[in-house]
Design brief:
Layout lengths: L2 H19 L8 E5 L5 H9 L4 E4 L2 H17 L6 E4 L8 H7 L2 E5 L2 H13 L4 E7 L15 H8 L5 E8 L11 H14 L10 E3 L6 H6 L4 E4 L1 H4 L5
Parallel strand pairs: 1-2, 1-8, 2-3, 3-4, 4-5, 5-6, 6-7
């Protein structure tokens, strides 16, 4: 087994243990491999051992890797992963992202939603999106304040090629994973409170938790965990 394969196997065991502590099924949790700065061959190795979802933070970097990943997987008779965009997104990158990704985790304003909707429609695609929530008043990370999420969801009703399926958050950096628990719980409560609101019909996903704190996130209801180093090892310089 490759190093990537061993890491992912260890992650699966930790996910299962965290799910058991929360009386959840591990199948409820999607392991999203965050592959920023990782080479294409590492992504191929991960997909070969069962990783079905890959996340990239920079559109240009992803567009350079995706064809190589596709070719190598096809040569092995393996299906391509679902590609998730997980970085901050400017409107001028909406076209490439709408055309080459399946899920966007960082919707944080109506203008971006309209641009993604327009470009997805032009490409004949339907895109899943998650609303990024700024839980801790850190605007440099992007995200919508919690009290503005409902209005953004209402705007999304008019979008024909986007489907809002959940919320995403990057909590404030803390020394210990346990200290992120409150932020994860707040995101879960926000999602639950929005059930039934206009634009919230498909709102079920919670994208939260990374390599250092994903187990706490799972205990608080995460359905997608974004794991980079723990899946692929240290990022190349």
């Amino acid at each position: 087994m490759s190093d990537v394969g061993a890491r992912i196997a260890a992650l699966r065991a930790r996910i299962a243990a965290a799910a058991a502590r929360a009386a959840r099924a591990p199948e409820e949790i999607t392991l999203l491999g965050a592959s920023k700065r990782q080479p294409a061959h590492a992504i191929v190795q991960a997909v070969a051992v069962g990783l079905g979802d890959v996340g990239e933070s920079y559109a240009q970097e992803a567009l350079e890797k995706q064809p190589e990943v596709a070719r190598e997987l096809a040569s092995r008779g393996l299906a391509a992963p679902r590609w998730h965009f997980i970085g901050r997104l400017q409107r001028n990158k909406a076209g490439p992202v709408a055309e080459h990704f399946d899920v966007v985790h960082t919707l944080d304003r109506a203008a971006l939603g309209r641009a993604l909707d327009r470009r997805a429609a032009a490409a004949g695609r339907r895109l899943e999106v998650l609303v990024q929530v700024d839980l801790d008043d850190e605007p440099q990370k992007g995200g919508v304040p919690p009290d503005a999420v409902e209005a953004l969801l209402a705007e999304s009703v008019a979008w024909t090629s986007l489907r809002v399926t959940g919320l995403m958050a990057i909590p404030a950096a803390v020394p210990l994973p346990e200290q992120s628990r409150d932020a994860f719980a707040r995101l879960r409560r926000l999602r639950d409170r929005l059930q039934g609101a206009p634009g919230a019909a498909a709102l079920c996903e919670l994208s939260m938790g990374m390599s250092a704190d994903f187990e706490v996130a799972i205990e608080e209801g995460a359905t997608i965990i974004r794991v980079g180093t723990a899946a692929f090892g240290p990022r190349p310089a």
